[in-house]
Design brief:
This protein has helices at 2-19, 30-45, 59-70, 82-86, 90-115, 117-129, 141-159, 165-182, 190-201, 204-216, 220-227, 231-243, 248-258, 260-276, 279-294, 307-320, 330-352, 358-370, 381-390, 419-423, 429-436; strands at residues 376-378, 412-417, 439-444, 470-476. With 479 residues, the protein is mainly alpha-helical. Helix 6 packs across helix 16, helix 6 (117-129) runs parallel beside helix 17 and helix 9 (190-201) packs antiparallel against helix 15 (279-294). The chain starts with a helix and ends with a strand.
């Protein structure tokens, strides 16, 4: 009974945090629009490869498209009303929330087997309530690959507890292969899974069983490119992803600002794991950090794959404080645990109750109601797939960056200028010229501007800037 209680509490907390107000908070992010566009394109064409852009493998859009198909998403006929438009993101956001609840369950089971019920309760509860985990509500590839990684780890652990090792190892490799087939950096998780499998019987044949599906499943991506005679494009796309880079210290700093509790507890827990030579935690954390430090452009949501291990390290750390003489009494320990969880829950609740994305859909509604298909609409992918695929506005490119290569062909152009557009001004002079030659017609002020994002927990609003003010601008060709 106690074990069931300890499991239900973090699951209920996670369900509330990740399923409450799914579209209102967080804002709808640039990349979410890209993955929705690709999923809808897959439903329409049956082809998981969109054009000749090879930035990530296919499983992400396959998973999202499958959920859209199961829920009869194509039957949705939204109006131009903001609330109706918001419903287009509801189903996939709920799906991401359910995956986060599944993550909570998998974290609990992993830690329960390796470290005990108390540490499992703490780890899963921290994952459920600490502010940074709201990121799992977004429609991101990382949200999809995390349960695959956790499932692979759990199956590997179970394989050490049963005689049916072969099947569990193969299935573990399949899940990890699907994680890599979702996003390449997930390959770093092979170190922890392979260590679990090998440490059990010290047999290389077990590791080979794991590696076969782990390697074969992601190969679907380049093999399909070869079949389409686009292998050169595949190579360029992969190399482009690895050649963009920035400092990992920026991401560490941002993490510390938006969730200082998880940052401090998690890294302290990893440090203690290093002292204890806990290979399970270290093989999970270190390879990914080393890889991402030197390869690719890093953003705060790329940390999602190691948030579970940071929560686990935090849970183990908190549980270990029972050994200190000053807090051996249960009521002191319970008080500390309760304070951390209550503080995290209140902090996160203060965020998720806000409908900060409302102005995004008000701006989209305005464009739909005031401009027809004779006008080019330059906008973020957050809106472009809705304009093009749902409302059949043919003069809507995939995103505003198309003007870097092709000028608008219509007499009038409308630009939806959000924070992401302003960040991208450095990509090319054409984006700045489009602003300089346009006139502000309407501005949609976001409720996010009313928060002081220098004060915790509203520091999290720094990761929601696309819900800030959105300008609707017009320009006439030749003006």
């Amino acid at each position: 009974m106690n074990k069931l209680f300890f499991l239900l509490i973090p699951l209920l907390l996670s369900g509330f945090i990740h399923l409450w107000n799914p579209v209102g908070y967080p804002d709808v992010f640039f990349d979410e629009g890209i993955y929705m566009r690709r999923a809808v394109n897959l439903l329409d064409t049956g082809n998981p490869q969109e054009g000749n852009v090879y930035d990530h493998p296919y499983f992400g859009q396959i998973a999202i498209a499958s959920i859209l198909a199961i829920t009869n998403y194509s039957d949705l006929k939204p109006s131009t009303d903001p609330d109706s438009l918001q419903s287009l993101y509801m189903i996939p956001r709920i799906f991401m929330g359910l995956l986060a609840v599944l993550d909570t369950f998998l974290i609990y089971k992993i830690v329960q087997i390796r470290y005990g019920v108390n540490s499992a309760f703490l780890s899963a509860s921290l994952f459920a309530v600490l502010p940074f985990t709201w990121i799992f509500k977004r429609i991101l590839l990382d949200s999809i690959l995390v349960p695959l990684v956790l499932g692979a780890i759990l199956l590997a652990i179970y394989s050490t507890k049963t005689k049916q090792k072969t099947l569990l190892i193969i299935f573990s490799g399949c899940l990890l292969g699907l994680a890599v087939f979702t996003k390449i950096p997930a390959f770093t998780m092979i170190f922890v899974v392979a260590w679990i499998v090998y440490a059990d019987r010290k047999k290389l044949s077990d590791v080979l069983l794991l590696l076969i599906p782990f390697l074969l499943i992601p190969l679907i991506w380049p093999v399909n490119a070869i079949m389409l005679d686009q292998f050169d494009l595949w190579q360029k796309g992969v190399l482009w992803q690895t050649q963009r880079t920035n400092s990992i210290l920026d991401i560490f700093g941002f993490f510390a600002v938006i969730d200082p509790i998880l940052f401090a507890l998690g890294l302290s827990g990893i440090a203690i794991a290093a002292l204890r030579r806990d290979k399970f935690l270290l093989f999970w954390f270190i390879p990914f950090v080393v890889f991402i430090s030197g390869v690719g452009y890093k953003q705060y949501f790329h940390w999602m794959i190691i948030i579970p291990v940071l929560c686990i390290a935090s849970g183990i750390l908190i549980e270990s404080i029972r050994k200190f003489d000053v807090i051996k009494k249960n009521f002191v320990y319970v008080g500390i645990v309760s304070a951390v969880l209550v503080f995290g829950f209140i902090s996160t609740t203060l965020l998720i109750v806000n409908d900060i994305s409302n102005n995004q859909f008000q701006a989209l509604s305005y464009v739909l109601e005031n401009y027809d298909d004779s006008i080019t609409i330059l906008t973020s992918p957050v809106y472009s797939w809705i304009l093009y695929d749902i409302f059949e506005r043919e003069n809507t490119p995939k995103d505003y960056s198309t003007i870097l290569f092709y000028p608008p062909t219509t007499e009038k152009t409308v630009i939806m200028v959000d924070d992401h557009y302003r960040i991208d001004l450095t990509r090319g002079i054409q984006l700045q010229k489009a602003l300089d030659h346009s006139t502000i017609i309407q501005t949609f002020e976001g409720t996010i501007t009313g928060f002081n994002d220098k004060i915790y927990p509203y520091t999290n609003m720094q990761a929601n800037k696309e819900a800030a003010n959105i300008e609707i601008r017009e320009s006439i060709r030749g003006s």
